[in-house]
Specification:
The protein is an alpha/beta fold. The protein has 8 helices and 7 strands, in the order H-E-H-E-H-E-E-H-E-H-H-E-H-H-E. It has one domain: Rossmann fold. A 7-stranded mixed sheet has the order 3-2-1-4-5-7-6, sandwiched between helices. Bound molecules: S-adenosylmethionine. S-adenosylmethionine binds next to loops.
């Protein structure tokens, strides 16, 4: 999806919000004429990202800050992306507003979050309801939720893709995959690509700023 957003970009300024060790940002930093930034509020995560950049010999601008109030100028970025971030905010609106502020008109956002209609996500929601989910607040999204949120913040949804299986006996999606994929690999790949955003564990959406 990141590739799709950058398909026609020559030079591009790119930011990963909540980058952690910045695996994706480091991959992008290896490509073409991209100026890549990673922002996180954890010094430990930024130290890991810096070590990765050093080892790989990649240029990555690391910034310590809050994704709801970044230090960047308005309309700076061609692409802003996040993975495993938005679901941790009971109120994600400030993150959406900040993305809207720092992305150029016509620029892109990629948002990657847990997908609602998946057995693992539903089990997680059940445990969160009972108060025994150990990893703190986490929400989940359908494609329709993401389209609505994006529209409300001045973005248009261009594409949605699902990915990921938790595995184990409770995961009927993984059982179906293991039963069918070996016999119908192309058919399974089609199902994932076409409909996976509605049943796989995570969903990533490509958005364009209006
Ligand atoms: C689940 S990790 C994902 C890391 C990375 N995107 C990845 O996929 O490996 C979420 C990251 O978001 C960062 N984070 C959470 N809330 C933040 C905030 N308000 N401002 C900046 N970073 C934040 C955390 O420190 C953590 O590194």
């Amino acid at each position: 999806m990141l590739e799709q957003a950058l398909a026609n970009a020559g030079r591009a300024e790119i930011l990963e919000l909540g980058c952690g060790p910045a695996g994706d940002a480091l991959n992008l930093a290896a490509q073409r004429n991209f100026q890549v930034y990673g922002l996180d509020f954890s010094t430990q995560a930024l130290a890991q990202a810096a070590a990765g950049a050093r080892v790989l010999g990649r240029s990555l601008e690391l910034v310590r800050g809050d994704v709801r109030r970044t230090p960047f100028a308005a309309e700076k970025f061609d692409l802003v992306f996040s993975q495993g971030l938005l679901e941790h905010f009971p109120d994600p609106d400030p993150v959406w507003r900040e993305m809207q502020r720092i992305i150029k008109p016509g620029g892109y956002a990629v948002v990657d979050v847990p997908q609602t209609w998946n057995p693992y996500t539903l089990a997680k929601a059940w445990h969160a309801c009972k108060g025994d989910w150990p990893w703190g607040w986490e929400t989940h999204y359908t494609v329709a939720d993401l389209r609505r949120a994006a529209r409300g913040h001045g973005f248009r949804l261009l594409a949605a893709r699902g990915y990921g299986y938790r595995g184990g006996w409770g995961d009927v999606t993984d059982l179906a995959r293991r039963g069918l994929q070996p016999f119908f690999p192309a058919g399974w790949a089609y199902l994932e690509k076409k409909f996976g955003a509605h049943w796989m564990m995570n969903v990533a959406v490509l958005l364009q700023k209006s």
